[in-house]
Write a structure and sequence with these properties.
Elements lengths: L1 H42 L4 H19 L11 H12 L5 H7 L5 H23 L1 H33 L10 H30 L5 H16 L9 H4 L15
Helix pairs in contact: 1-6, 1-7, 2-3, 2-7, 5-6, 6-7, 6-8
């Protein structure tokens, strides 16, 4: 009886270790994607194309929330869109007036006009501070934001794994639920990352290279700060990010 009990304990311990390895595989896959893209970011001197692509994605998603694709004009929330653009992109567009002045300003043309206005506003920022300074600032903001979102994601993954076994009580496969929810967390992290980067770059007023240096200094301090949010098993979830590795948002 004692031997049988011992075998059961050993089998149970093996199952636990196996599950931890399977969970680690999910986190490590995400980490490989993150570090690979971050390294690409570090190698690029000019990430303006990435920033433009991210801004386009965020703006398109924002417009969708107020002007649903292929919807009737009566269903549009133009005041809400005007306010949202003001908050997130720091730009005031008289969209209501545009529509009143042109009854042929349909959805596609309206979207193009909004996109052009947002891009023009960003170009004006570039003209004010110089393209070299803005390129440096874009990269500094990207790195700082990516590092913070990745750290927060590690904490969320650790929290998820701590309670994932409870899914078994609901007749669900904990491993499959972990994969599904971790993928959702990862996707959400990337989307939030893009929104934050675009919002910061749209709102910030860059005056000189000193502003870039301040952001880079804050980033270095953040890298060296204690990571109190991590549990003992954080190493299994994703581990410490090497100094040359963080995460870059995926652009398509």
């Amino acid at each position: 009886a004692i031997e049988n009990a011992q075998r059961k304990v050993e089998a149970r311990n093996f199952d636990v270790r196996k599950q931890l390895l399977e969970y680690d595989d999910v986190a490590n896959d995400q980490r490989r994607v993150v570090y690979s893209q971050r390294n690409e970011l570090l190698e690029e001197g000019d990430i303006s194309e990435t920033i433009t692509a991210i801004r386009g994605d965020v703006l398109s998603n924002t417009i969708d929330q107020y002007i649903a694709p292929q919807s009737l004009a009566e269903m549009w929330d133009i005041p809400g869109l005007e306010e949202r653009l003001k908050q997130d992109f720091l730009i005031e567009l008289p969209i209501t007036q545009w529509l009143a002045d042109d009854n042929k300003l349909y959805e596609e043309k309206l979207r193009e006009r909004i996109e052009q206005a947002v891009e023009q506003s960003y170009k004006q920022k570039e003209e004010q501070v110089g393209d070299s300074v803005l390129r440096q600032f874009e990269k500094a903001i990207m790195l700082q934001s990516l590092d913070q979102h990745w750290k927060d994601h590690l904490a969320a993954m650790d929290h998820l794994r701590q309670g994932i076994h409870l899914r078994g009580y609901a007749q669900k496969n904990p491993k499959q639920e972990y994969k599904r929810e971790s993928f959702e967390l990862f996707s959400e992290m990337l989307e939030n990352l893009k929104v934050d980067v675009v919002s910061i770059l749209s709102k910030v007023q860059v005056r000189a290279e000193e502003d870039v240096e301040k952001v880079e200094e804050q980033h270095r301090k953040s890298e060296n700060a204690p990571r109190e949010y991590q549990h003992e098993e954080a190493e299994h979830v994703g581990g410490e990010a090497p100094e040359t590795a963080t995460v870059m948002a995926r652009t398509e």
